[in-house]
Amino acid sequence: MKAVCWYGANDVRVENVPDPTILNPRDAILKITSATICGSDLHIYDGYIPTMKAGDIIGHEFMGEVVDVGREVKKLKKGDRVVVSSIIGCGQCHYCQQQKWSLCDNSNPNGWIHDKLFGFGTAGIFGYSHAFGGYAGAFAEYIRVPFADYGAVQVPEGIPDEKILPLSDAFPTGYMGAEMCNISPGDTVAVWGAGPVGLFAMKSAYMLGAERVIAIDRVPERLQMAQEFANAETINYEEISAGDALKEMTGGRGADACIDAVGLEAHGMGLEGFYDEAKQAVRLETDRPHVLREMILACRKGGILSIMGVYSGFVDKIPMGAAMNKALTWKMGQMFGQKYMPMLLDRVLNNEVDPSRVFTHRLPLEEAKQGFEMFKHKKDNCVKVLLKP
């Protein structure tokens, strides 16, 4: 089959690789009908995610048709149309039973790597390095889905892939980010990053009862989509300090909750931005924490920081004194996809939200490299790229 393989920073290639096979009786094999480049895929593309190996198949946001199942798969059969969570969960451990799927004890065969880095192992993720299990990813014609009864959600025929595909990752990630804000009526929620996850976080904040949602970005077309898709007010941080603007917009109080939908490649301004880029380039810090710093200062006293942007390792110059003295609550994590997917699917089927609106470009799998470049550099007003094997 054809698949997109990683060979280093900014080097992905479409190659012929062996088809996947059933390795465990709880596996299913999927023929992928659509996949999409996620913002966190850019961290791999840019070379910032450790434990990648040359030739690894990447991609984790996908859907398709079941073409084979292991003997212990009970809920799926050949021919089923499904969308699959990017997070792999066993369904049986303490964390899966608590609906905290990204903390699964059993789905990451390389959990020992996380033991050393994080203190405990976390779940496997499709196509996202050997630290997250070394699973083959979704930018391919076929994929093996472990623990298929728990990760794959059946979807009806007749509804376009574009409306369903974001349920694999971007939509539940944004929803979880908003849910962690403990939104009360009248709240103002500020979202850093108007990419796909940020847009879904904005939409979800309104679903959960926010009175105002404010989008912070620097790309005009993304800010425009935040207005049109999510009904958000906007701040262009290249034109005005986000913190100053938020104070002015909230009568000096600050946002009740702040969501980081950017992660480890955040763009800072001036000396701070240069400092982070220089330290990251020589690996004196792995991640650029500009958004974290800005949220700590911009959030109101007693507010909540919700962190859904991916961080891989270590950051510095975090104003912990401000966070502590302002009594801020921090919530964060890889998304609990299986918890939210059925509910969000119902909302899509009931026409409460149309996730397909975030897609701006559609490309064949063979043009994945062009898709990465377009998405990375925000060319041609790109917000999200759909890939068709």
Automatic annotation (TrEMBL):
Record-annotated Alcohol dehydrogenase-like N-terminal domain positions: 25-155
All residue ranges annotated as the Alcohol dehydrogenase-like C-terminal domain in the record: 196-265
Signal peptide: none
Alphabetic keyword roster: Metal-binding, Oxidoreductase, Zinc
InterPro entries in the cross-refs: ADH-like_C (IPR013149), ADH-like_N (IPR013154), ADH_Zn_CS (IPR002328), GroES-like_sf (IPR011032), NAD(P)-bd_dom_sf (IPR036291)
Nucleus keyword on record: no
Pfam families linked to this entry: ADH_N, ADH_zinc_N
GO molecular function ontology, one term from the record: oxidoreductase activity
Cofactor needs: Zn(2+)
Family stated for the protein in its record: Belongs to the zinc-containing alcohol dehydrogenase family.
Protein name: Glutathione-dependent formaldehyde dehydrogenase
The species this protein was found in: Scytonema hofmannii PCC 7110
